[in-house]
Design brief:
The chain is mainly α and 121 residues long. Helix content is 64%, strand content 12%.
């Protein structure tokens, strides 16, 4: 891209729209919250973790079932589940001798659903 082409993408007039800038600036979350949001989206940046989240979007299940569906080792799935649990995207509960995993709350399911809808458009 040439230098002249870069300028075409910018505003032709350097007029700051103070009311818009002020409104957006007032609503801007704190730096720490934005950092945490970026970290959350990094967790979504791994295909294996997305597969696990999608699997749990469909049904609650144990590590061995997830491993079977994804054709991976239980150890690899457990490692990724720990990352997802630390990010508060999944939770677990004991059912007898098994640990059952599920999405942490409806927000996680909404993110997965909206993401699938977005890429399907």
């Amino acid at each position: 891209m040439k230098a002249d082409e870069k300028h075409e993408a910018c505003c032709d007039v350097t007029e700051v729209h103070n009311s818009i800038v002020d409104a957006v600036s007032m609503d801007m979350p704190e730096e720490e919250a934005l950092y945490d949001l970026a970290e959350l989206f990094k967790v979504f940046g791994d295909t294996t973790r997305i597969k696990i989240l999608y699997t749990l979007f469909e049904a609650e299940m144990c590590v061995c079932d997830i491993a079977e569906i994804l054709n991976m080792t239980q150890s690899a799935i457990s490692h990724q589940l720990k990352i997802l649990k630390n990010a508060k995207l999944v939770k677990n509960r004991r059912d007898g001798k098994q640990i059952i995993y599920e999405l942490d709350d409806e927000h996680v399911g909404s993110i997965i659903k909206m993401g699938i809808e977005h890429i399907s458009e």
